[in-house]
Amino acid sequence: MSQQYHIPVLLHEVIEHLRIHPDGIYVDCTFGGGGHSKSVLENLSAKGILVAFDQDEDAMKNLPDDPRIIFVPHNFRHLQRFLRLHNLTKVDGILADLGVSSHQFDEEKRGFSTRFNADLDMRMDQRQQVTAFELIHTYSEKELHKLFEQYGEVTNAKTLARRIVEARSTDSLKTTDAFRDSLRGIVKGNPNKYFAQVFQALRIAVNDELGALKEMLQQVPGVLKTQGRVAIITFHSIEDRLVKNFFRRGTFEEPKENPFENIVSESELKLITKKPILPSEKEIKQNPRARSAKLRLAEKIAVSSEQ
Ligand SMILES: C[S@@+](CC[C@H](N)C(=O)[O-])C[C@H]1O[C@@H](n2cnc3c(N)ncnc32)[C@H](O)[C@@H]1O
User: Fold this and answer.
1) Is 219 in contact with 79 (CB distance < 8 Å)?
2) Closest ligand 1 atom to 8 CA
3) How much distance in Å is there from the Cα of 75 to the middle of ligand 1?
4) What does pTM read for this prediction?
5) What is the pLDDT of residues 218-273, one digit of tens each?
6) Taking burial as the number of CB atoms within 10 A of a residue's CB, which of 12, 80, 117, 154 is the most buried?
7) Cβ of 107 below 6 Å from ligand 1
8) Residues 230, 299: Cα–Cα separation, whole Å
9) Crossing angle for the helix pair 141-152 and 191-206, nearest 10 degrees?
């Protein structure tokens, strides 16, 4: 494995806006290749602490030999639980760089990439039961339709769902090649783009990426200190909308057209930047995988009971 594990995206922007206190406690929800974590550690004193989550055991290979880091090999949806386990109740900053790492894409056997033939797996956490294989064999046609339409924005999601249901009754669809072959006749537009969208949708569902994000975000106001900051990098419009709505209004719902119909909840977070921060042309040139990244930041505001 000579390839680089992962190039951190929007690194300077994240570090600048997190405004790291040298003695603070920080959480990297998505350790991966450890690129963001490394920079956080560089900004911490010997008293600082970094709690790093990653549900993929491969990420552990990248752990630095550093007593200030606490690694949690679990899903970040259990953020608060694991902080408590380590006797940490409040933290100064939280970062999440969502999705899969380049390493996960580039590892043939993981089944994330359309470039290789592998088992239809796509689990970030190998301890998890549900694989992409299981999902395409157990979801109803309606569920598959919704999945490909919403997560993959696949134009003919309905046809695709019907084709999968037909194919799975006769073929085993065990591998990514077998799965792709079964769809040959229905591909719309550029096949590479089409299959990338189909694979992305499956990956999001297999790993319940939106469910994990929502659960984590809901715990953020409770674990951040006042003036503590949270930085989230998304790569999908649905994720970005969830983050934006939650940071702005404390809810995942889209605002209603009629402003009087909106439930006004007192958000404990304040947006730091109105618009998302995007990678520069230069960064995209150096790292094309950064092109769809969006960074949003919020700060925990003082609530009256805490003053
Ligand atoms: C885009 S990579 C992060 C890269 C990292 N920022 C770096 O600089 O190398 C995302 C990582 O987060 C992990 N991950 C994604 N969702 C997760 C979740 N819900 N819980 C724990 N880890 C998760 C993936 O396994 C992957 O290693």
Assistant:
1) yes
2) 8
3) 9
4) 0.95
5) 999 999 999 999 999 999 999 999 999 999 999 998 877 676 666 656 679 999 98
6) 154
7) no
8) 6
9) 110
